[in-house]
Amino acid sequence: MHHPELILLGARFLDPVDGGGRPYTALAATGGLISALGDDREVRALAGSTTVVVDLKGAVVTPGLVDGHTHPVSGAELTAGVDLSRCESLDDVRAELGRAREALAEGAWLHAWGLDPNVFGERAIEAAALEPVLDGVPALLQLFDAHSMLASARALELAGVDGPRAFDQAAEIVCDADGRPTGMLLEDAACELVERAAPQPTRTDRRERLARTLREMAASGLTGGHAMDANGDSLELYEELDRDAELAVRLRVAPWCQPGADADAVHHLVQLQARGGELWSVDGVKLFMDGTIDNGTAWLERPDCHGESTHAFWPDPAAYTDVVTALHGAGVPTATHAIGDAAVRHALDSVAKARAGAPGDVRHRVEHIETVPDDTVRRFAELGVIASMQPTHCCDFTWADHSDNWSRRLGEERAGRAWRCRDLWDARATVVLGSDWPIAPYPPLGVMAGARHRRPSRDLALPPHGPEQALTGMEALRAMTVNAAHAAGEERGAGRIAVGFRADLTAFAVDPAAAPATELPDIPVQLTVLGGQVTHRVAGL
């Protein structure tokens, strides 16, 4: 007889499918799966000498929460710099950078992240506004969207960037009328030119920081994440952490396919799908149909107020469609970054074409979906495309009065279509919620809260942006449990509290679906379980 590795007692169970509490108080996990549900007495009797028994003292247990869009490796590296995400003005930014400059070792580069373009107001986003406080040091300041950065004059000089360049994707070194770089770098290809010139952290440092980040994610209640990149040695790092029992979050990884990918590159991506370990796997491919609205690199059906956001990230959108068709034919799901209405429409058109040529249950997704018209909303359910949404982007980077950069660029009509979670849900699309960390904080309670209240997390007294698009508490829970499992093709074995399902579980001090949305981020996470193993446990439990 195999005894359970874990038994939970004194619990209240909340399953998102049946929409309420389960008539059990105890659970057993054996071989990574839920093996028994019942009352405390009968489940306790299953324990063996090595079984871990936890009395939850009335805590509410849900299926483990899954971040539908995250970047663990790049996020762990990026957030090693100065955090500018709480700065609300240029003076705030200058103060933070000034303190960092004073503490900087001679010759070192200054790295920062989370810079909100709204701090620049109506003025151009240029490094010149910050050069006095940087005082000649090489600096790379990542904007909040991670699709752009400001490079100081010294950083540009060390990288040998002194004018415009041509790229295979919609990237740009922004220059003034005289052809001199302003410091603004748009999209990865441009950013990498300067990033390569900066000293790089050691692999040991990167591995340790990633392991620590994953432990902190587990402590926030996460048991899983859909990792939307496999850049650099990410897969090797996941493999090592999994082998050494240090992978505290289950990861589903989608490597990138960039413009210019030929048949050999697509074949390589298909071959990668077989790679994985006990707690991680490559499952899908990430593509980009556009950039961001804030940078003017989204793909809109009409230009923004500056005449920007008029082109796709792929110079030839038909080539993107061909890649989606090839991946679909190979049974590989795609996840397409599509923010603007034209980008979302083209992504859906491409899936429709792929399905027409080769019907099959391949779970394609569109990521972000920041502004779309009614006819596009309806097509998600019709095509079976997952709607992957990040509601805290709406909460923290746009404002209810539409005076923010994102809204000003779009104008009232399109800004009024912001993050249509409610409309997509009501149209029967499968909505998955995520953070897009490090763009926004990863704690899942904050993500679910944002989907419900749609208010700025820095000040919940401020008015909500599009309150009619809010989800209910139970819907938000479903979007980070059973819907995430459906997106991964795992709905028959994950995302629920049922015998035979994966023993990935999160326990809270109170019911997260019933708690007021504005109080949700502060609810204590009592216990996190991954495959029947405890990854987080509060003291005294």
Write the layout of secondary structure elements.
Layout: E1 6-9, E2 12-15, E3 20-22, E4 26-30, E5 33-38, H1 40-44, E6 52-55, E7 60-63, E8 65-70, H2 72-78, E9 82-83, H3 90-103, E10 110-115, H4 131-134, E11 139-143, E12 148-151, H5 153-159, E13 172-175, E14 181-186, H6 187-195, H7 203-219, E15 222-227, H8 234-243, E16 250-253, H9 263-272, E17 280-282, E18 285-288, H10 317-329, E19 334-338, H11 341-357, E20 365-368, H12 374-383, E21 386-389, H13 391-397, H14 405-410, H15 412-415, H16 421-426, E22 431-433, H17 444-453, H18 473-479, H19 482-487, E23 505-508, E24 525-530, E25 533-537
Parallel strand pairs: 1-6, 2-7, 8-15, 9-10, 10-11, 15-16, 16-17, 18-19, 19-20, 20-21, 21-22
Antiparallel strand pairs: 1-4, 2-3, 4-5, 7-23, 11-12, 12-14, 13-14, 23-24, 24-25
Task: Describe the protein's architecture and organization.
31% of the residues lie in helices and 21% in strands. It is of the alpha/beta class. Helix 2 (72-78) packs across helix 7. The protein has 19 helices and 25 strands. The strands form 5 sheets. It has a 6-stranded mixed β-sheet with strand order 3-2-7-23-24-25, covered by helices on one side. The protein has a 6-stranded mixed β-sheet with strand order 9-10-11-12-14-13, with helices on both faces. A 5-stranded parallel β-sheet has the order 18-19-20-21-22. The two termini are 28 Å apart.
Please summarize what this structure is.
By secondary structure, the chain is an alpha/beta fold.
